[in-house]
Amino acid sequence: MFLKGKTAVISGSTSGIGLAYAKALAAEGAAIVLNGFGDADAIEANRAALEQASGTHALYDPADMTQPEQIAAMIDRAAAETGSVDIVINNAGIQHVAPITEFPVEKWDAIIAINLSSAWHMMRAAIPHMRKQGWGRIITTASAHSLVASPNKSAYVAAKHGVVGITKTVALEVATDGITANCISPGYVWTPLVENQIPDTMKARGLTREQVIDDVLLKAQPTKEFVTIEQVAALALFLCRDEAKSITGANLSVDGGWTAQ
Ligand code: NAD
Q1: Which of 42, 68, 79, 258 has the least CB density, counted as fewest CB within 10 Å?
Q2: What residues contact 239, with CB distance under 8 A and at least 6 apart?
Q3: Any ligand 1 atom below 6 A from CB of 14
């Protein structure tokens, strides 16, 4: 259990990739701050299971990633209740699929707030804690869309390119503090976020559900397989190891070869 005594705050960890990060880190003994929306009973069941797996704290914090003061309060609470903030994973994210001329302004604002600005606010609040202990890991779930674009995803692609820029900058700022900052860029991972965009893509492109899965989603992925949440979480776990201390400012693809094309 190489993460015993360490605390990980993971935004958007009530579902999908974020929950897989939480399980992987808890299995190595990390205290977890679970965050995100969802059914209260399901969240409590996940929280209790994480506590059981790690043998230490697992907290749930409902901070809304569109609200900077709630983000700062979550980081401070994590430090106060578990004793430290060692690992921050910026993972909360939403998607909206529409051509730019029909893209609702409030969807642009929400995607930029949740997928981009929240990462900046999390890092800003967490780095002073990490500096104090001389160790930290900042991991951000970017996307293959941090490297390449797809039509009808202007806000998402902008936000994902943006988190890579923040990560590179912060990696330079904390390089001598024992802190690393990296992005993980998955291709298509089968989670609610992907499942929920299928109806809009069907509408936007006039396709059937099967056509969206085979001809839009998996078309981009040479392996013709969805990435799994466990594969993404395994890379995050490696980035937390001391052997990964020289990996910083990187954007690491887990995309079945998508962006090699
Ligand atoms: P998901 O929908 O399963 O999880 C998203 C999480 O974010 C949930 O816990 C949700 O409650 C939380 N969230 C949403 N809005 C929030 C808010 N305002 N405040 C706090 N939490 C909020 O989706 P996922 O696929 O697991 O996505 C996780 C991350 O991975 C996202 O950043 C996404 O862009 C990225 N990603 C996903 C894929 C994929 O194919 N699924 C590919 C590349 C990158």
Answers
A1: 42
A2: 137, 139, 180, 182, 184, 247
A3: yes
Instruction: State which ligand 1 atom lies nearest to the alpha carbon of 142.
Output: 44
Residues 129 and 242 in one domain: yes
**Ligand 1 centroid to residue 230 C-alpha, Å:** 15
User: What average pLDDT score do residues 128-135 get?
Assistant: 97
95 shares its domain with 212? no
Q: How confident is the model at residue 77 (pLDDT cuts 50, 70, 90)?
A: very high
Range of 40's domain? 7-189+227-254
Decide: 91 in ligand 1 pocket, CB within 6 A.
yes
Q: What's the pLDDT score for residue 64?
A: 98
Active-site positions? 156
171 and 218, same domain (yes or no)? no
Check if the beta carbon of residue 252 is closer than 8 Å to that of residue 187: no
pTM value surpassing 0.70: yes
Residue 186 CB less than 6 A away from ligand 1: yes
Question: What's the confidence (pLDDT) of residue 194?
Answer: 86
Tokens of 25: 């880190």
How does pLDDT run across 18-45, given as a tens digit for each residue?
999 999 999 999 999 999 999 999 999 9
CATH number (domain holding residue 136): 3.40.50.720
Atom of ligand 1 nearest to the CA of 114: 18
113 and 220 housed in the same domain: no
91 C-alpha to ligand 1 centroid (Å): 6
Task: Using CA atoms of 40, 42, 48, 54 in order, give the dihedral in degrees to the nearest 10.
Answer: -120
**What number is the average pLDDT over the span 224-250?**
97
